Amino acid sequence: MPPKTDQPGPNRPPKAGAVSEPAQTTGPNRAATTVTDQPTAPTAAVLRPAPLEIRDATFGYARRPVSEHLDLRIPEGSFTAIIGPNACGKSTLLRAVARLLAPTAGQVLLDGRSIAEYRSKEVARRLGLLPQTSLAPDGISVAELVSRGRYPHQKITRQWTSDDERAVAEAMAATSVTELSGRLVDELSGGQRQRVWVAMVLAQQTPLLLLDEPTTFLDIAHQIELLELFTDLHRSGHTLVAVLHDLNHAARYATHLVAMRDGRVIAEGPPAEVMTADLVHEVFELPCRVVPDPETGTPMVVPLARRRDTP
Amino acid sequence: MSTHPTQERETVVNPARNPAPGPASATEQPPLYVDFGRPTWIWRRLGTALRVDRRTALVCGVLTAAVLVLGVLTLGTGSISLTPAQVLTALTDPGSDRRARLVVMDWRLPRLLFALVCGAALAISGALFQSLTKNPLGSPDIIGFSSGSYAGASVVMLLLGTANYLAIATGSLIGGAATALVVYLLAYRHGLHPFRLIIVGIAVGAGLSSLTSMLLLSVSPQQAMLAATWAAGSLSGLGFEQLGPTIAVFLVLLICSTATVRPLTQLELGDDAAVALGVRANRARLAGTVVGVALTALVTAAVGPIAFVALAAPQIAQRLTRSSTTLRIVPAALTGALVLVAADFAAQRVELPVGVVTVCVGGAYLAWLLARQYATRR
């Protein structure tokens, strides 16, 4: 039945749009297959579970607490998305977990031990962060930048072991930036650059990945491409914690949602349970309807149209 | 951890070009080699594993050769002229012509070695601060640390009236460190912003220079002349007795600076990324600052303030090696040594203190740098 196939129904292969995107920047199909298949085998063996827990923690800037007495447990092996309005404390939370900010009270536990008790490099071997703002030095090549992710594994006399080289090669393959290897980071497009930074964090070979608004500043195609990549990483055994702005992306890709407001966790759980019209209204003060995503069946937030009186 | 399948030297040039990028298949291994886009040598042997950029290695080789050639020429230059052959004989053969040996070994070699060590020390100091401030203008001679060292040394020389090398060196170190502390405190507001640090440093440096001038005016003309000659930055009149301690301290600082290179290079990615990669940011910055100030103070105590080598040498080295960071100790140090030896060679020809030569050449470079920074910022 020809008309049926034209409709954007559930029969359409869902990956069609996303997979064709990397082909523009890198090689043909190879890029797509590398993304989906490669990371599973080599990286999964290295990964060990690293549960992350925040216990009764208070943190903020300059004695102004953003969050007080916060408790949160990141489920092992989950793709957790933290959502909430601007200045709700979600990035602060991520910064505290990544040790960029010390809690003034309470603690962050990594593998059951307070994160403050670890040596810096030891934390960096278990937990990687894709920062919100990052600076690539002028004239640095892609391979050079990705290699910087090996820092916690290196010593002054052992800066480029075969393990380092393998990790960097695998990270670049997983993010389809191998072809860009020798190019300068300044010359790349925004989407390519973000994938290079993801590769740098992957080269760190940590079971836990923290992503601070990874899709901001990217166009929709590159956002989806990156989220698909994160899904692949999640499937290959990584635990992901991402601050996401787009509720529909969060609901579609995450396995666990944490909704925050005013420094407090309002709700957490699987997207299908958490993402309701009431919650969105409570957290964002946005009147909306939540309908099933026609592609995946996950909750989709549709803001209500404002009624305007015609003069 | 130390398992090495091949305990031998691997030399890979443009490795990723070699394995054919095969078609996509589920069993395909990702390429094991990383292509850096430029020829790279990899050394994995004796428990070490290092990656050396070929261009950087070649540049370092050429710089070393240039320093050696210029050094031999310098040793032959002066009121008694010697050919390079005579210089080499005097250097290597203890039984050679005693007059030539006296001139080369006792009179001129200390001066040359001072130029080498001071040039290298200034360049490393500049590289550290330019990396810390992420700005080519953030070198110790611009942000007032040299002025601080100079003021400290002047106080010791003029007010305490001593010409003791160790006393001057101590004064210079204290002056430099105190200036660094004052500049950091004044520039600190919700973190250390590089541009604010540079502006505050320039202001503090200007203040210290006028303080030193005031000090010069308040003492006897003879003392002032002595201090002024020293203040122009001169390599003449230095002998082996000052050289020993200078080289010893330099070697210690060289090792310390090597240890700070990796964390400081990571900090160039931004604090967040660096901390997430396991760098202790404040500790690394403190270590870099202390080593940088000490290197500047070492030079100032020995030969007086020599401007612009710290500013220019790391930048020249970075352009020669086409590196992504100014913080590459070996090329920067070799460039600094070459620049100062060349400046001293020129200074001897025109009979001026070497500091005057570096100011003249460096001033033009600074003007160009400012013009270019302004042009790219718009």
From TrEMBL, chain A:
Keywords: ATP-binding, Cell membrane, Ion transport, Iron, Iron transport, Membrane, Nucleotide-binding, Transport. It holds the Pfam family ABC_tran. InterPro entries: AAA+_ATPase, ABC_transporter-like_ATP-bd, ABC_transporter-like_CS, P-loop_NTPase, Siderophore_ABC-ATPase. The keyword Repeat does not apply. Residues 22-41 have a biased composition (Polar residues). SMART domains: AAA (SM00382). This is ABC transporter ATP-binding protein.
